[in-house]
Structures
1.
Amino acid sequence: MTDRYKEKNCKFCEKLHKKRGPYCCQGCANSDREVSDKVRDNMRSVAIDYNRTPEAIAKQKQLHTSLVGMTVEDFAVDIPEVRDLSDYSEFLDGFDRGEKW
């Protein structure tokens, strides 16, 4: 069963292999294909949109590869200072005590 496929050179990296198809691995197969400009533009726009999310920024900070000009503070939300709950009485609907929550 080990000699199921004949030995051949990979079309991309010229490495000898005995696997099915002309490539030694999926990476070589992906590298050898041509990508159209439309697909390339779509991939670029998806990557740009993702890099603007808080998750991507946090990951980039963790890996020390953050984008120049973008910080986590760009996504921070201001928390209002509450001084008196009577200002929010329309939202409380009678829940002025903890037992009623």
2.
Amino acid sequence: MKTFAIIPVSRFAHAKTRLSPTLSPIERENLLKAMLKDVIKVLKNTVDQVLVISSDNEVLDYIQQLDINVLKEQGVTDLNGALKQALEYSSRYCDQVLIVPSDIPLLKEGHVKSILKMGEEYNVVIAPAKGGGTNALLCPVKGINMHFGDCSFFKHMDEAGKNGFTHTIYDSFYLALDVNTSEDLGEIMLHGDGTCTQAYLKDLNLEVRSNHGMERLHVLRDE
């Protein structure tokens, strides 16, 4: 089967606003760029083609510099509307797609290869995010609707079942980690050896400390 990977990317100006107590706007933008490099590097080595869809010309210009195909999102839509456009485009060229977010820098080639291997037996493979979302979705290019958002993991399971697709779960700590909080930054600094994202965070002089409160890790800027 021919497989495209699809990465939806929001505007750089809106990057990771939940990290604003820790990182400045330009730091959050550069963080997203570093994570994109990590995700794209893995996907380029494991699928037939990588496609980024975005409504932001700045994002599309940056991605083209990485020698990746881009698709300009048409009209005013949401994430699932953008993915529908990407699926329609991809259906002309491939059999299945692997949809992943831009903020999973701990993604490894082994994860993708395992998911593709499972896809030889199942129509749909779903990898959950730690908060109940979806951090990877392997599915046919036709016959399935996108439900990315809150608790999308369960919605994608239901969607696959009601449309008669065989489906299974790929569960991984590294793949489940998307970056939204300062604690997530700490996980990248602990587990992200060899990634552009970890290197960037170290350049910012961030320091990780254990924490016994609600969050397991506390991230500080080492002045």
3.
Amino acid sequence: MMRIAPTLLVLAASLLSAPVAMALNEYGIEGMGVVSTRADEGRATISADGQRIVFARRGEAGWGLWQARVVDGRWQQAQALPLAVSGEVRDPYFSRDGRWLLFAAGREGRSGLYRAAIAADGSVGAPQALAGDGGRHEERGPALSADGRQLLFARQQGRGAGWDLFVASLDAQGVRGPATALQALNSPADETDGDWLGSAGAVAFSRGSGDTAQVWTSGCAWTGAALQPIGLSFNQASGWTGAPVVDNAKPGEMMVASSAAKSPRAGGVDVYRLAVPKVAAVPACMQ
């Protein structure tokens, strides 16, 4: 495991919550006490203008979405984000153009995908279901390609079959095309929480089983080129690190959720910031 110099840990802790912080060689906790708290946090996503972060947090009633804003250069004013859907809400994702907030919502075993329009003042509109197969399968972890036409998501294949990654076209009205399993990425483990890296078809995603997970990358979602876990000290097979999402305001950086980092820590599962791994582009990958 890579050793982190004490001075780097002090610097990472001092950054606390600034969304415009310098690039970190290893990691820095995101929003100590505001985004990352004693509660468990999950997937986090930043708006295109860099002024808002929406993240999943687990409370007494289960998972819900929270939002914080930039005030004096720091994430502050974290508040629950109410949405007119039933059940738990998780896996938030801002589209690259800032027009949509995507998420998953529902009861256990009945989770589906949604999107809500973002108004000019940052308010979130009424949710629209992104129905795909009549609700026959549980789905979560939505992510949109840079042009908004490719929807990446995870689908529960059936009782005992685990989660796999799928992709489907998405038109301007939110109508999905047929879903295609990304066979080159899927394995006997669970694959969830994917995000597109750039516009050429490269991806980052979570792979794990039970209480363990790692973040993996590939140069092409359809072929699995250069498939490997990212080289992060706490991205180990024995821990839990997942939910990679590129920062829309700073596309050279991304966030992950992890319970495996040794320090700094706020609670059980916190949000961390790191540089986007360099992944070689694959010609003609995007389908």
